[in-house]
């Protein structure tokens, strides 16, 4: 196994991690921004008001995108297993 194969697998894994984290992170970012806007307009500075909607939105994002996330992860794992003979030189 040479250096380029290791770097290729590492880069593919990092890209997959970014793709899998994006739906939850973007959802939490948007909901957090909206809640902070509402807090600044109404001058209500309650900590749970910012945490609970983000947690609920992240859970909804996981339920919506969960099937796609698992399918992407299974595809990546199957591709890695398929590359094993080429990586060991067999």
TrEMBL record:
Location, primary (coarse class): membrane
The protein, known as: Flagellar biosynthetic protein FliQ
Reported function: Role in flagellar biosynthesis.
Coiled coil: none
Topology relative to the membrane: Multi-pass membrane protein
Keywords, in A-Z order: Bacterial flagellum, Cell membrane, Cell projection, Cilium, Flagellum, Membrane, Transmembrane, Transmembrane helix
GO BP, one annotated term: protein secretion
UniProt organism field: Cellulomonas soli
Recorded superkingdom: Bacteria
Bilayer-crossing regions: 20-39, 51-70
Family under the similarity heading: Belongs to the FliQ/MopD/SpaQ family.
Species lineage: Bacteria, Bacillati, Actinomycetota, Actinomycetes, Micrococcales
């Amino acid at each position: 196994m040479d250096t380029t194969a290791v770097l290729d697998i590492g880069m593919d894994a990092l890209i997959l991690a970014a793709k899998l984290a994006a739906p939850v992170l973007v959802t939490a970012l948007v909901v957090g921004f909206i809640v902070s806007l509402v807090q600044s307009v109404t001058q209500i500075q309650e900590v749970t008001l910012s945490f609970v909607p983000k947690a609920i939105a992240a859970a909804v994002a996981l339920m919506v995108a969960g099937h796609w996330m698992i399918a992407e992860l299974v595809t990546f794992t199957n591709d890695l297993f398929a590359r094993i003979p080429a990586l060991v030189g067999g």
